[in-house]
Design goal:
This protein has 149 residues and is α/β, with parallel strands linked by helices. It has a single domain, classed as Response regulator (Rossmann fold, 3-Layer(aba) Sandwich). The chain has five helices and five strands. It has a five-stranded parallel β-sheet with strand order 2-1-3-4-5.
Length: 149
């Protein structure tokens, strides 16, 4: 299971550190690739820019996507992913602190698989990370992706 990469798209260094600590404490041992804005996330997914040497068929098992990102926001990342054959079936969990109902509606409308508000309490966040890891990395059966069959 540990070869199943998690793509964490998060621009806030404190939230990035908190998420990585929560995943580790929740015993999620999968490698985590961090993209700090929407452009970097798309470059990783489509193996371009700084990630052009990455094997394009080696897609992450799940993407943890923040919405409020610089350069290209999370909703635009989601929209771009869902419009491309290579990434349209990748599991995307919107992991955000946004309480805006419109963000929730837009996320699901654009094809998010799940929407999770980041808990403020660290113990709750660890438990949420553990459950996310258990479900998306162990229990969930992902759809075969183009080039990964």
């Amino acid at each position: 299971m540990s070869d199943r990469v998690i793509l964490l798209v998060e621009d806030n260094p404190k939230d990035e550190e908190l998420t990585l600590r929560a995943l580790k404490k929740g015993k999620v041992i999968n490698p985590v690739v961090v993209a700090r804005d929407g452009v970097e996330a798309l470059d990783y997914l489509f193996a371009r820019g700084d990630h052009e040497k990455r094997a394009p068929a080696a897609m992450p098992q799940v993407i943890l996507l923040d919405l409020k990102l610089p350069r290209v926001d999370g909703l635009e990342v989601l929209k771009t992913m869902r419009a491309d054959e290579r990434t349209k079936l990748l599991p995307v969990v919107v992991l955000t602190s946004s309480n805006e109902e419109q963000d929730l509606i837009n996320s699901y409308s654009l094809g998010a698989n799940s929407y999770v508000r980041k808990p403020v309490d660290f113990a709750q966040f660890v438990e949420a990370a553990r459950q996310l890891g258990l479900y998306w990395l162990v229990l969930n059966e992902t759809a075969p992706l183009a080039g990964r069959r």
